[in-house]
Amino acid sequence: MTFKVGYLTPREANIWDLRRRDRSQSDIGRELGVSRQAVHKAYHIIDSKVEQAFMEAAETNNLIVKTINLVEGVMEAHSPAHDIPVLVSLSRRNGLKVWYLYEGNCGTCNLESSCRSVLEAEAEERGIELNAMHKLLPPPQLAIEIFGRYHDD
Q1: What is the structure's pLDDT at 153?
Q2: What single-letter DSSP state applies at residue 150?
Q3: How many whole angstroms separate alpha carbon 97 and alpha carbon 140?
Q4: Residue 107: per-residue pLDDT
Q5: Is 132 exposed, middle or buried (0-12, 13-18, 19+ CB in 10 A)?
Q6: CA-CA distance, 66 to 87, in Å (whole number)?
Q7: Which residues of the chain have pLDDT under 50?
Q8: Contact predicate 39/23, CB 8 Å
Q9: Which of 47, 62, 67, 124 has the most neighbouring CB atoms within 10 Å?
């Protein structure tokens, strides 16, 4: 089983990516050589598949879902086992990633540079510019900085 881009076909992943970049259905249709209605129909299929990926991630990791932003590919959740907030991201480049937002010892973890690289790639794919201060943040704080902007109040 894979969570890579929420089971989206390459064409659906392309439509999802264009939608995330605020392209209109008409513009996406013209670019892909399909009707606006076909793009609209694809949105429903894409949303269903992305939601399925998030719900499976929540179930697999025993998370309580708080919010899901299907367009941006971000889920906010809570881990009752660890009593901490969790962010789950979905992107073309990195697939589905679960970010536990704890005050850990990232500096001594052998995965810190890997986490940081994934988060920097997420920011780049989403068109989020990271400054020098962002790049000094521990990965959990960097995840909040990147994905927290998609929170719906």
Answers
A1: 45
A2: G
A3: 12
A4: 75
A5: exposed
A6: 10
A7: 1-2, 153
A8: no
A9: 47
Cβ-proximal residues to 78 (8 Å cutoff; 6+ apart), any chain: 63, 64, 66, 84, 85, 86
Strand order through the sheet with 64-69:
64-69, 74-79, 84-91, 95-100
pLDDT for 86: 94
Phi, psi of 100 (to 5 degrees): -80, 125
Strand ranges, E, within 6-152: 64-69, 74-79, 84-91, 95-100
- Residues pairing with 65 in the sheet: 77
pLDDT at site 151 = 62
- 71-96 burial, b at 16+ Cβ within 10 Å, e below that, comes to ebbbbbbbbeeeeebbbbbbbbebeb
Instruction: Say what the alpha-carbon torsion angle 56, 60, 66, 69 is, to the nearest 10 degrees.
Output: -40
Hey, what are 129's tokens? 């510019």
Half-sphere exposure of 16 (CA within 13 A, CB side): 28
Which pLDDT score is estimated for 152? 53
Domain boundaries, the chain: 4-150
Residue 88 near residue 3, CB atoms below 8 Å: no
Rounded Cα distance between 75 and 55, Å, is 9
